[in-house]
Amino acid sequence: MISIAIDGPSGAGKSTISRTVAEKLGYLYVDTGALYRTIGLYVLRKGGDPKNEQQVEALLPELKVDMGYENGIQQMFLQGENVTGQIRTPQVSMAASGVSAHSCVRAYLLELQRRLARENNVIMDGRDIGTVVLPKADVKIFLTASSEVRAKRRFDELTAKGENTTFEKVLEDVEKRDYADIHRAISPLVQAEDAIVADTSQLNFEESVALIQKIITEHLSTQNV
């Protein structure tokens, strides 16, 4: 099986780009960030503090997170409820950053992620896929863009959904999330030594997809995978 690891900061377009490339290559797309977002949503619903590891760990035994696919699109289920449309808010994003810093949560999800890679050709994105989850991935990519560009993309997405916010607030959230992800003690956001950097600051979506697909196909061809 072939595994592609795509890491990078929040708002870099990892999910949409990885999903599109996976469709083009016929691979299974695994959005690991959605797993952490789903756990973050559960902690918020239970009135817990996502940054409090003891509170989060106490909730894990009763937690049931499932991943399914409808028309090739990943769906997230929490206690049997499809929450795919509820895990993309700024509040849940920060909660995801909080819970993802805990070793108990990462251990809870690690085997699920690795099993998917053992059983399928996958493109898996997240923060530590190439460094921790799939350290022997066939291709590793660090997908990034400037914080201003990422905030603008996120702002446009939120306003299109009718949410009342400002670019300045979204930029502040992006920078806070970056700091939290980079400075957490467990599996911080870091570029794998053998990862190829793909900066999409000056690229539109179609150009970004083409770049990632080109990197993958070229590196797989040189490895004769």
Outline the fold blueprint.
Blueprint: E1 3-7, H1 14-25, E2 28-31, H2 32-45, H3 53-59, E3 65-70, E4 73-78, E5 81-82, H4 90-99, H5 103-119, E6 122-126, H6 129-133, E7 139-144, H7 147-160, H8 167-183, E8 196-199, H9 205-223
Parallel strand pairs: 1-6, 1-7, 2-6, 7-8
Antiparallel strand pairs: 3-4, 4-5
Helix pairs in contact: 1-9, 2-4, 4-8, 7-8
Pfam families: Cytidylate_kin
InterPro entries: Cytidylate_kin (IPR003136), Cytidylate_kinase_dom (IPR011994), P-loop_NTPase (IPR027417)
Domain Cytidylate kinase: 4-216
Short description:
The protein is of the alpha/beta class. The protein is 51% helix and 17% strand. The protein has a 5-stranded parallel sheet, with helices on both faces. Strands 3-4-5 form a 3-stranded antiparallel sheet.
Notes on the structure:
- The longest helix is centred in the C-terminal third of the chain and has 19 residues, at about 205-225.
- The chain is α/β, with parallel strands linked by helices.
- It has a five-stranded parallel beta sheet with strand order 2-6-1-7-8, sandwiched between helices.
- It contains nine helices and eight strands.
- It has helices at about 15-25, 30-45, 55-60, 90-100, 105-120, 130-135, 145-160, 165-185, 205-225; strands at about 5, 30, 65-70, 75-80, 80, 120-125, 140-145, 195-200.
- Keywords: ATP-binding, Cytoplasm, Kinase, Nucleotide-binding, Transferase.
- Its EC number is 2.7.4.25.
- It is found in: Cytoplasm.
- GO terms for molecular function: ATP binding; dCMP kinase activity.
